[in-house]
C-alpha cells in the first residue's frame, strides 16, 4: 500500500501540520491543554477521544475558527499565524465541521463559491464553479446537483458539498470532524474511497471519529485525546481497537454487546397498514405493518430517508397518519387531540428521538428541567395542583445524572453545554427510567463516544430484560445487528422483510436496504 | 409669581399653547417678572402640576386646554387662596376663572371669508382628530360658509386617531391634495402641527388656506387667506397682569370681547377684498348684537349643517 | 369612481408609499444580514430633523440630504455597535434609538431654532421640487396612458424615483453580486460565512451602513419632499409600518415595493373617502381611518403561510460562548 | 475557576451602565446650558425624596409593571407582542364599562370586576393576532401593530360618540361612581400610622401589580404551563416532540399578555383618572417593551426596570416643573438608560469580567 513507502520518508519531509503547546480555555473549561502533534504529508491521521475531549476545539483552532490562548502552528515546517479562517484557507487547509457550515436555503453552487467568488458579480463565478465542480465530481466521485438547495439534500450529500467546498478552495490539508456520524454504511464507504483517492494525490487528511473500525481501516497514524490532553500518538498498524479504546476511556471497554437470548412475551405494539403523507404531499409511509413483543428488541434497518424517521414521528405522536396502532391490544388515536406526545406517553410509550438537539432537549434549559421534558405533567413531579415540585425534580435529576454517569454531573448546567454523548445520556436517562411499556429509540449512539455507546446499549438491553418492548431505529448496521432480537428492513416507506440477526449478515441486509428482496420472511 | 401649565401639545404647537406662551412672555417682558411653567407630558401630571405650583405659592395658576377641567375640580378646593384659570375648560370651584372662547363664532367668520374667496364653491376643513372641540370649529365654519353660499360644498377630513394626528404634516398635505382634487380651493386647518402641512400644500398647489389659533398668515404670505385667532395670549396676559387680584368666575372670550377673530395683516391684505371685509364686519356686528346666532356644537353636541 | 380619481388616489398612494419603501428596504438590508431593526422609526425621525435643519440653515436641500443621511448612518452605527460589536440585544437597541431620536430632535431643534423642535418652514432651494418627466405635458391628453404617465408617474420629487430605482437595484445587489450573496448568507448562517473566510462583522456593518443611507433618504423625503420642514414626531409611526411591510414582503425587494404600495394606497383611499354618507347613516370617520389596518390584517390572514425570517436574525454572532 | 462574583453581575455592572447613561445625559444637560448636578439632585429628591415623589414614581411603575410583564410573557413564548398599547386601551374600555354600568357596593368588589373587565377586553384584543399567528402564520408583529391603530380608532369613536356625557368637551367617559374609587396609598397606610402623601395617585393597584409579578413568576417558573411556554419559546420543534400544543401555547401566552396589558387600566383609569380618557395609555405599552427587555423577561427584573422608569418619569416631571429644561430631555435620558443598560451591556461587562478573571488568576499564583 501507498502508506508503506510514505512511512519511510517521514524523517526527511517537514510535517504538513505541526502544533506545539496549544492551549485553549472556554471560561472555566480547559478544552485543550498544551497539545502538540505533528501530521505527515500525504497521510491520513486519525484523532479519537471521548465526547468533550477537545477534538473539535483543536481542529477549529487549526482552521482559525477559534483563537488559541497559547501555542504555535507550523504548516509544512513554516510557523503560520492563523487568526481567522481566511488565513487557514490561504494556508491550504480545508475543514468539514461536525455541524456543517452551510447556508441551508442556498444552492450547492452558491455555498461552494461563498467567500471565494472571482469578482464582484456572481454570474461568472457561478459559471466557473459549475465547470470545476463538474471536473471535481468526476475526479473524486463527488456527484452533487449544483442547483439543488442544501435544505433539500440528505446529510450525506451535504457532506459531499462540504468536501467540495474545501477542494474548490484547493485545500491540500483536509480536516474532517466526525464525518461518518450521520452517514449510512454505504455512504461511509464511499467517503473512504474518496479519502483514499485524496491521499493518493498527496493530500493530507485529519479524520476525527468515534468509530475504531474506521480508524483501523483507513488511517496511517492515530492520536488519542483525553480531557483536553493529547495522551498518545501511535502508528495504526501497531495497535488494535481494544487498546485504543482503553487509551481513550482510561479503562477496559467491551466492544461487543453482551446479552442473553430474548424471551418475548405478549404483543405490546401492533402496527397495521400505517400510511403517512408529509407536508409536501409526499407519501412517506406506504402501509407499514409490524409488531413488537414484550422483552424483545425490534431493530429497523434502512438507509436514512426511507421512512424510519416518519415512523418514529407517527409512533411518538407528532405526525398524523392513517391505519391502526395498538398498544397492548388497545388502539390509539392517530389524529386529533389525543394524537400527541403527551397522550402517547400516557399510554406508556417512551421515545428517544433521532435528533437530541432538535427534538429531545431544550438546549437552553438546564439539565434538571430537561430531565422531565415531556413528562412534566406526571403526578410525581407536582407539588400541588398548580405548581411543579422543582426541588424534587432537581434531586431526581441529580440522582439520574449520577447513575447515568453524565459528565459533568451538574443538573444546573444548560443542556447545550454538555457534549453530544452526555446530552444523549440525559435523554436516555429520562426516557428509560419512566419504565415504559414500549421504548422508541432513534439513532441512540449517533456521535457518541465508545464509552457512552457501551453504557447506552447496556441500558437498552436491561430494559428489554425487564420485559419491555423496544423499537430501535439506526442507520448503523452494526448496532442493529448486535442489539436486535429481530430485524426489519425499511425501504421507500415499506417493510422489505424481517430477519433474525443470527441468520443474516450485513451483505444481505444491505441488499434489502437497497430495495432488493430475496427469499421469504423469517418472522 | 404666576404659573402656566401647557397642555400635551407643548408650548410651541404653533397654535393654542403657543398663543398662551406668547401672552406669558409679553407679560414677562413688560413687567420683568418671571413665571413658572410646565409642558405636560402625561395625564397624571395634570393634578401634580396644579398642586405643586399651588403649594409653592404661585398665583394665579393658569391652565390651557379643556382636558384640565377634571384635575382643576379636584385640586382647586384644596387651595382656596390660589386663583386658577382655565382656558377652554370648566370647573365649578369658587376659586377658578373659567375662560371660554367662542371658537364657533370666529370659525363662522372664517367660513364667510372662505365662501367668498372660493371660486369653485367647494371649501375644505382639516381637523386634527374627531373630538368635540374640533367639531366646534368645523361646525361654526360650515355655518359661515353656508350662510354666505348656500350651495357651497364642504369637505371635512380628520387626520387620525392617535396623538400623532396633531404632528403629521405629511398626512395633512395629502389630505389637502385630496380635497383640492375634489374641488376645494379654500381649506381651513384646525390640526396643530398637521395644519402646517395643510397650509404648506395649499400654498404649493396654489389654493388658499386658513390658519388657526395663532396668526399664521405670515407663514405663506399671500397664500393664507386669514387665520382664526383665539386670543389665548390676551387671556394669559390679562390673568398674569392682574396677578393675585385676579377674580374667579367666568370670562367669555367671544367676538364681542375680542376673544376670537380673524387676523388681518400685511400678509393677507391683497387677498382680502373690500366685500369680504364688509361681509365679515357685518356678520361680526350681527353676532355681537345677537342678530345672528351661531350654533355652538358644544351646547348640545349637534351640528345643524354638518354630519360628523 | 372615475378614472381621474383613481389616478389621483394612486398618485397620493405613491407619495405615501415612498418613505415606507425606503425604510422597508433599509430594514431589508439590515435584517437580511441578520440584524433586527425596529429602530427604523428613530432613524427616519432623526434624518427628517437634520435634513430640514441643515437645509434651513444653509439654504441647500442637498446639504440637508447629506446631513439627514449622515444622521441616519450615525444611528445605524450605534445600532451596529450595540448589536455587532457588543453583541447586545438588537430589539433593546432599536427601542432605545427610537426614544433617543424622539427626544434629541426636539432638544436640538429647540436649542437651534427656538421653535419647540420645529424647524423653520422650508422654501425654494431648501426643498426638493417636483420633477416633470420628459414629454409629460405632451402626452397628457392621450387617453388612459397619458394621465398615468403625466399625472401619476411624473411630477414627483427626485427621491420618489430614487426610491423606485432602489427596488431593482436592491434586488440586483442582493441576488446578482458577491456582496449580496455574502450578505444573505450572513443573515442565514454567519458561521458559514466566517468559516468561508469572510468577516461577519464587516459584512454586518456594511449592511447597517446601507440601511442607514436608505432610511435616511426616507426621513429626508418626509421633511424636505413631502412636507416643508420638520415637525416633532413627524415620522408618525411610519417606521413601524415599514417594519410590518418588510415582514409582509417576506424580506424580498420586489415584494417590499408591492407591500408598501399597498399600504400607501390603502392610506390614500382612506384619506379620500373619509366621510361616506349613506343617507341615514354616516360611516364613522374612525372606521375609515382604521380601514387600512383592518384590510392589512385581512389580507395577511388571507395570504396565509408563515413568513420565514432570515434564520440568524436577532442573534448576535458569537463564536465562543 | 470562578468567572465573576455574583454581586458584580447583578449590582456592579448595572450600576456602571447607569453611570455611563447619566454621565452622557449630564453632558446633554450641559449642552443645553443647565446644571447637570442640580438636575440630577432635583430628579432624585423629586422622585424619591418624599412620599409624594414616591407616590408618583410608584404610580408610573405600576403601569409599567403590568405592560412589562405582558410583553415578557409573550416573549417567553417567542412572540413579540408590540400590541400592548392597543390592548391596554381596550382594557381601559373594559374597566370603564364595568365601573360605569355595574353598581358596586364597595371598591373591593369593583376592583375584582374591573380587573376581569380589563383583562378580558385586553385579552380579546390579543386574541385575533394570536389566532392568526397560530392558524394562519400571520406574523404577530404586523398584526399587533395594526391592532394598535385599530384600537386607537375604536376608542376614539366610542369616547366621542358613545360614552361621552353630553356637553363634555374632552373625549372621555363620565366619572366613575364613588364606590369604584380605589384607596390611595395614603388611605392604606394611614391606619398603620404612616403618613403617606395624600395627593399622589399611587393606589392599591400597586399591590395587584406586585402580586402579578409574583403570580407571573410562579406561573412561568414553577407551573406546568409556564414550563411549556418557556419550552415552546426556546424550541417549537422539541415542544411538539414533548406533546406541547403550539396552538395552545400561542393562544394562552397572548391571552395572558393581552390580559395583563388590559389590567394596567385599573391603575390609570380606575385608580388615577377615575374615568376613561382618550390618551390614557400614553405609550406605556411601548415602554413595556423596554421594561421587559431590560428586566430580561423575568418578573423581578421587570419590577426593577419598572421602578427605574417610574423614577425617570417622576424625576423628569420635577425637572420640567422647576427648570426650563424641556421635557424631551427626560426622553433622551430614558433612551440612554435603555441603550447602556440594555443593549450596550457588554461594553462594560467584558472588561469587568476580564479584570475579575485576571485578578483571580493573580490571586491564585
Ligand atoms: N464554544 C464553546 N464555548 C464553551 N465551551 C465549549 C465551546 N466549544 C466546546 N466547549 C467545551 O470544550 C470542551 C471540548 O469540546 P469539543 O467540542 O472540542 O469536544 P469534542 O472532543 O469535539 O467532543 P465530541 O466528540 O462530542 O464532538 C467541552 O467541554 C465543551 O463543552
Ligand atoms: N382518548 C384518549 N386517547 C389517548 N390519550 C388520552 C385520551 N384521553 C386522555 N388521554 C391522555 O391521558 C392523559 C390524562 O388526560 P387528562 O386530560 O386527564 O390530563 P390532566 O392530568 O388533567 O392534565 P392537566 O394537568 O393538564 O389538566 C393525557 O396525557 C391525555 O393526553
Ligand atoms: Mg466534536
Ligand atoms: Mg385536565
Automatic annotation (TrEMBL), chain A:
Recorded topology in the membrane: Peripheral membrane protein
Keywords: ATP-binding, Cell membrane, Membrane, Nucleotide-binding, Repeat, Sugar transport, Translocase, Transport
Organism of provenance: Aliiroseovarius sediminilitoris
Gene3D superfamilies: P-loop containing nucleotide triphosphate hydrolases
Signal sequence bounds: none
Alphabetized GO MF terms: ATP binding; ATP hydrolysis activity
Source organism superkingdom: Bacteria
Main location: membrane
Keyword Nucleotide-binding: yes
Family as reported in the entry's similarity comment: Belongs to the ABC transporter superfamily.
InterPro entries reported in the protein's UniProt record: AAA+_ATPase (IPR003593), ABC_carbohydrate_import_ATPase (IPR050107), ABC_transporter-like_ATP-bd (IPR003439), ABC_transporter-like_CS (IPR017871), P-loop_NTPase (IPR027417)
Domain ABC transporter residue range list: 17-252, 269-517
Protein's recorded name: Nucleoside ABC transporter ATP-binding protein
UniProtKB/TrEMBL annotation, chain C:
Transmembrane segments: 12-29, 49-79, 91-115, 158-175, 205-231, 251-270, 290-309
Pfam families: BPD_transp_2
Keywords assigned: Cell membrane, Membrane, Transmembrane, Transmembrane helix
Subcellular location: Cell membrane
Species of origin: Aliiroseovarius sediminilitoris
Gene Ontology MF term list: transmembrane transporter activity
Record-given protein name: Nucleoside ABC transporter membrane protein
Main location: membrane
Species lineage: Bacteria, Pseudomonadati, Pseudomonadota, Alphaproteobacteria, Rhodobacterales
Membrane topology: Multi-pass membrane protein
UniProt key word Zinc-finger: no
This protein's GO CC annotations: plasma membrane
From TrEMBL, chain D:
GO cellular component terms given for this protein: plasma membrane
Superkingdom classification of source: Bacteria
Record's bilayer topology term: Multi-pass membrane protein
Main location: membrane
Keywords: Cell membrane, Membrane, Transmembrane, Transmembrane helix
Ranges annotated as spanning the membrane: 12-33, 53-75, 87-104, 110-128, 140-160, 200-219, 240-264, 276-293, 300-317, 329-348
Subcellular compartments: Cell membrane
Leader sequence segment: none
GO MF annotations, alphabetized: transmembrane transporter activity
PANTHER family: ABC TRANSPORTER, PERMEASE PROTEIN, GUANOSINE ABC TRANSPORTER PERMEASE PROTEIN NUPP
UniProt name for this protein: Nucleoside ABC transporter membrane protein
Organism per entry: Aliiroseovarius sediminilitoris
Amino acid at each position: 500500500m501507498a502508506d508503506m513507502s510514505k512511512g519511510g520518508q517521514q524523517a526527511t519531509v517537514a510535517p504538513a501540520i505541526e502544533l506545539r503547546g496549544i492551549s485553549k480555555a472556554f471560561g472555566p473549561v480547559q478544552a485543550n491543554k498544551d497539545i502538540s502533534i505533528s501530521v505527515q504529508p500525504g497521510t491520513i491521521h486519525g484523532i479519537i477521544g471521548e465526547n468533550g475531549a477537545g477534538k473539535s476545539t483543536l481542529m477549529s483552532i487549526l482552521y482559525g475558527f477559534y483563537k488559541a490562548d497559547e501555542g504555535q502552528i507550523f504548516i509544512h515546517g513554516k510557523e503560520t499565524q492563523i487568526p481567522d479562517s481566511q488565513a487557514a484557507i490561504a494556508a491550504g487547509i480545508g475543514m468539514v465541521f461536525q455541524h456543517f457550515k452551510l447556508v441551508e436555503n442556498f444552492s450547492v453552487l452558491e455555498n461552494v463559491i461563498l467567500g471565494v467568488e472571482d469578482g464582484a458579480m456572481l454570474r461568472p463565478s457561478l459559471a466557473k464553479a459549475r465547470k470545476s465542480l463538474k471536473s471535481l465530481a468526476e475526479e473524486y466521485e463527488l456527484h452533487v446537483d449544483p442547483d439543488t438547495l442544501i435544505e433539500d439534500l440528505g446529510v450525506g450529500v451535504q457532506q459531499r458539498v462540504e468536501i467540495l467546498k474545501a477542494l474548490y478552495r484547493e485545500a491540500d490539508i483536509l480536516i474532517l470532524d466526525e464525518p461518518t456520524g450521520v452517514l449510512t454504511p454505504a455512504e461511509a464507504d464511499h467517503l473512504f474511497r474518496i479519502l483514499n483517492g485524496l491521499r493518493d494525490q498527496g493530500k493530507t487528511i485529519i479524520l476525527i471519529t468515534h468509530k475504531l473500525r474506521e480508524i483501523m481501516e483507513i488511517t496511517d497514524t492515530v492520536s488519542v485525546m483525553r480531557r483536553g490532553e493529547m495522551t498518545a500518538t501511535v502508528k495504526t498498524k501497531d495497535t488494535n481497537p481494544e487498546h485504543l479504546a482503553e487509551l481513550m476511556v482510561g479503562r477496559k471497554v467491551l466492544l461487543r454487546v453482551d446479552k442473553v437470548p430474548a424471551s418475548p412475551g405478549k404483543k405490546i405494539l401492533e402496527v397495521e397498514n400505517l400510511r403517512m403523507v408529509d407536508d409536501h404531499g409526499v407519501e412517506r409511509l406506504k402501509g407499514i405493518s409490524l409488531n413488537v413483543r414484550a422483552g424483545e428488541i425490534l431493530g429497523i434497518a434502512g438507509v436514512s430517508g426511507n421512512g424510519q424517521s416518519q415512523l418514529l414521528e407517527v409512533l411518538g405522536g407528532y405526525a398524523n397518519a392513517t391505519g391502526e396502532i395498538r398498544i397492548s391490544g388497545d388502539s390509539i388515536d392517530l389524529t386529533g387531540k389525543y394524537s400527541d406526545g403527551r397522550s402517547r406517553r400516557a399510554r406508556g410509550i417512551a421515545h428517544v428521538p433521532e435528533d437530541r438537539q432538535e427534538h429531545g432537549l431544550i438546549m437552553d434549559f438546564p439539565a434538571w428541567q430537561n430531565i422531565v421534558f415531556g413528562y412534566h405533567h406526571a403526578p410525581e413531579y407536582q407539588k400541588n395542583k398548580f405548581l411543579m415540585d422543582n426541588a424534587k425534580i432537581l434531586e431526581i435529576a441529580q440522582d439520574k445524572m449520577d447513575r447515568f454517569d453524565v459528565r459533568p454531573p451538574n443538573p444546573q448546567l444548560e443542556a447545550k453545554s454538555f457534549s453530544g454523548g452526555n446530552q444523549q445520556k440525559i435523554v436516555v436517562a429520562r426516557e428509560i427510567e419512566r419504565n415504559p411499556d414500549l421504548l422508541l429509540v432513534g439513532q441512540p449512539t449517533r456521535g457518541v463516544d465508545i464509552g457512552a455507546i457501551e453504557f447506552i446499549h447496556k441500558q437498552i438491553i436491561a430494559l428489554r430484560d425487564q420485559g419491555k418492548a423496544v423499537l430501535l431505529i439506526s442507520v448503523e448496521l452494526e448496532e442493529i445487528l448486535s442489539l436486535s432480537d429481530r430485524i426489519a428492513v425499511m425501504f421507500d416507506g415499506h417493510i422489505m422483510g424481517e430477519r433474525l440477526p443470527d441468520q443474516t449478515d450485513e451483505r444481505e441486509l444491505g441488499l434489502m436496504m437497497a430495495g432488493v428482496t430475496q427469499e421469504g420472511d423469517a418472522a | 409669581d404666576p404659573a402656566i401649565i401647557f397642555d400635551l401639545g407643548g408650548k410651541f404647537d404653533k397654535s393654542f399653547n403657543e398663543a398662551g406662551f406668547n401672552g406669558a412672555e409679553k407679560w414677562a417682558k413688560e413687567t420683568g417678572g418671571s413665571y413658572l411653567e410646565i409642558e405636560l407630558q402625561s395625564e397624571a401630571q395634570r393634578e401634580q402640576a396644579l398642586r405643586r405650583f399651588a403649594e409653592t405659592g404661585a398665583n394665579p395658576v393658569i391652565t390651557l386646554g379643556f382636558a384640565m377641567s377634571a384635575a382643576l375640580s379636584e385640586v382647586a378646593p384644596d387651595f382656596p387662596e390660589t386663583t386658577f384659570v382655565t382656558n377652554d375648560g370648566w370647573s365649578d370651584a369658587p376659586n377658578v376663572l373659567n375662560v371660554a372662547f367662542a371658537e364657533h363664532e370666529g370659525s363662522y367668520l372664517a367660513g364667510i371669508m372662505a365662501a367668498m374667496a372660493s371660486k369653485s364653491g367647494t371649501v375644505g376643513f382639516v381637523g386634527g382628530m374627531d373630538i368635540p372641540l374640533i367639531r366646534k370649529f368645523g361646525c361654526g365654519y360650515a355655518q359661515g360658509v353656508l350662510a354666505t353660499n348656500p350651495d357651497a360644498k364642504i369637505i371635512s377630513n380628520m387626520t387620525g386617531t392617535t396623538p400623532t394626528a396633531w404632528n403629521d404634516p405629511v398626512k395633512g398635505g395629502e389630505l389637502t391634495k385630496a380635497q383640492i382634487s375634489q374641488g376645494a380651493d379654500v381649506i381651513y386647518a384646525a390640526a396643530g402641527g398637521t395644519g402646517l402641512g395643510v397650509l404648506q400644500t395649499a400654498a404649493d398647489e396654489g389654493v388658499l388656506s386658513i390658519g388657526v389659533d395663532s396668526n399664521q398668515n405670515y407663514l405663506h404670505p399671500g397664500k393664507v387667506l386669514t387665520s382664526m385667532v383665539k386670543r389665548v395670549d390676551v387671556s394669559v396676559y390679562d390673568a398674569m397682569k392682574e396677578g393675585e387680584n385676579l377674580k374667579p368666575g367666568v370670562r367669555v372670550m367671544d367676538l364681542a370681547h375680542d376673544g376670537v377673530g380673524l387676523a388681518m395683516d400685511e400678509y393677507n391684505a391683497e387677498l382680502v377684498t373690500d366685500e369680504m371685509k364688509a361681509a365679515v364686519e357685518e356678520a361680526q356686528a350681527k353676532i355681537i348684537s345677537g342678530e345672528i346666532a351661531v350654533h355652538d356644537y358644544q351646547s348640545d353636541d349637534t351640528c345643524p349643517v354638518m354630519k360628523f | 369612481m372615475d378614472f381621474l380619481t383613481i389616478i389621483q388616489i394612486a398618485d397620493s398612494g405613491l407619495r405615501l408609499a415612498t418613505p415606507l419603501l425606503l425604510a422597508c428596504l433599509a430594514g431589508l438590508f439590515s435584517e437580511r444580514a441578520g440584524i433586527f431593526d425596529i429602530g427604523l422609526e428613530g432613524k427616519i425621525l432623526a434624518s427628517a430633523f437634520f435634513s430640514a435643519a441643515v437645509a434651513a440653515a444653509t439654504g441647500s436641500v442637498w446639504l440637508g440630504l447629506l446631513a439627514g443621511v449622515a444622521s441616519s448612518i450615525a444611528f445605524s452605527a450605534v445600532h451596529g455597535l450595540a448589536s455587532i460589536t457588543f453583541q447586545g440585544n438588537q430589539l433593546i437597541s432599536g427601542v432605545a434609538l427610537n426614544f433617543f431620536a424622539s427626544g434629541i430632535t426636539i432638544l436640538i431643534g429647540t436649542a437651534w431654532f427656538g421653535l419647540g423642535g420645529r424647524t423653520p418652514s422650508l422654501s425654494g432651494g431648501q426643498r426638493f421640487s417636483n420633477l416633470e418627466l420628459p414629454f409629460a405635458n405632451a402626452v397628457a391628453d392621450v387617453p388612459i396612458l397619458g394621465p398615468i404617465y403625466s399625472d401619476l408617474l411624473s411630477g414627483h420629487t427626485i427621491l420618489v424615483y430614487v426610491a423606485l430605482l432602489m427596488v431593482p437595484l436592491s434586488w440586483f445587489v442582493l441576488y446578482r453580486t458577491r456582496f449580496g450573496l455574502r450578505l444573505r448568507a450572513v443573515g442565514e448562517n454567519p458561521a458559514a460565512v466566517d468559516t468561508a473566510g469572510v468577516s461577519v462583522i464587516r459584512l454586518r456593518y456594511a449592511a447597517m451602513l446601507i440601511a442607514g443611507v436608505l432610511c435616511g433618504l426616507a426621513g429626508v423625503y418626509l421633511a424636505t419632499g413631502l412636507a416643508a420642514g420638520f415637525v416633532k414626531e413627524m415620522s408618525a409611526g411610519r417606521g413601524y409600518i415599514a417594519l410590518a411591510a418588510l415582514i409582509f414582503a417576506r424580506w424580498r425587494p420586489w415584494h417590499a415595493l408591492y407591500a408598501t404600495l399597498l399600504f400607501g394606497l390603502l392610506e390614500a383611499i382612506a384619506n379620500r373617502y373619509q366621510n361616506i354618507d349613506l343617507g341615514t347613516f354616516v360611516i364613522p370617520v374612525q372606521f375609515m381611518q382604521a380601514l387600512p389596518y383592518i384590510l392589512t390584517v385581512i389580507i395577511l390572514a388571507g395570504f396565509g403561510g408563515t413568513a420565514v425570517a432570515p434564520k440568524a436574525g436577532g442573534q448576535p454572532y458569537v463564536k465562543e460562548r | 475557576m470562578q468567572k465573576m462574583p455574583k454581586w458584580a453581575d447583578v449590582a456592579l455592572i448595572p450600576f456602571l451602565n447607569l453611570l455611563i447613561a447619566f454621565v452622557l445625559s449630564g453632558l446633554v444637560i450641559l449642552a443645553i446650558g443647565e446644571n447637570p448636578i442640580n438636575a440630577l439632585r432635583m430628579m432624585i429628591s423629586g422622585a424619591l425624596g418624599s412620599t409624594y415623589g414616591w407616590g408618583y414614581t410608584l404610580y408610573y411603575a405600576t403601569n409599567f409593571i403590568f405592560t412589562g410583564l405582558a410583553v415578557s410573557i409573550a416573549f417567553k413564548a417567542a412572540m413579540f407582542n408590540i400590541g400592548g398599547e392597543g390592548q391596554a386601551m381596550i382594557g381601559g374600555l373594559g374597566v370603564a364599562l364595568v365601573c360605569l354600568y355595574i353598581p358596586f357596593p364597595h371598591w373591593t368588589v369593583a376592583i375584582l370586576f374591573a380587573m376581569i373587565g380589563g383583562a378580558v377586553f385586553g385579552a380579546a384584543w390579543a386574541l385575533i393576532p394570536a389566532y392568526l399567528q397560530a392558524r394562519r402564520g400571520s406574523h404577530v408583529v404586523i398584526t399587533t401593530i395594526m391592532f394598535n391603530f385599530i384600537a386607537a380608532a375604536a376608542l376614539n369613536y366610542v369616547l366621542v360618540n358613545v360614552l361621552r356625557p353630553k356637553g363634555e368637551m374632552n373625549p372621555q367617559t363620565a366619572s366613575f361612581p364613588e364606590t369604584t374609587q380605589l384607596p390611595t396609598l395614603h388611605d392604606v397606610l394611614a391606619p398603620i400610622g404612616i403618613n403617606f402623601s395624600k395627593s399622589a395617585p399611587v393606589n392599591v393597584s400597586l399591590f395587584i401589580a406586585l402580586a402579578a409579578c409574583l403570580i407571573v413568576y410562579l406561573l412561568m417558573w414553577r407551573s406546568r404551563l409556564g414550563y411549556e411556554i418557556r419550552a415552546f419559546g426556546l424550541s417549537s420543534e422539541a415542544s411538539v416532540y414533548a406533546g406541547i400544543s403550539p396552538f395552545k401555547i400561542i393562544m394562552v401566552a397572548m391571552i395572558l399578555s393581552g390580559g395583563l396589558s388590559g389590567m394596567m387600566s385599573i391603575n390609570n383609569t380606575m385608580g388615577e383618572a377615575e374615568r376613561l380618557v382618550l390618551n390614557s395609555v400614553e405609550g406605556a405599552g411601548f415602554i413595556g417593551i423596554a421594561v421587559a427587555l431590560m428586566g430580561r423577561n423575568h418578573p423581578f427584573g421587570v419590577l426593577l426596570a419598572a421602578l427605574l422608569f417610574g423614577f425617570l418619569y417622576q424625576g423628569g416631571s420635577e425637572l420640567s416643573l422647576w427648570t426650563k429644561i424641556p421635557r424631551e430631555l427626560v426622553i433622551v435620558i430614558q433612551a440612554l438608560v435603555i441603550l447602556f443598560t440594555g443593549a450596550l451591556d457588554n461594553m462594560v461587562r467584558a472588561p469587568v469580567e476580564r479584570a475579575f478573571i485576571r485578578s483571580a488568576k493573580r490571586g491564585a499564583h
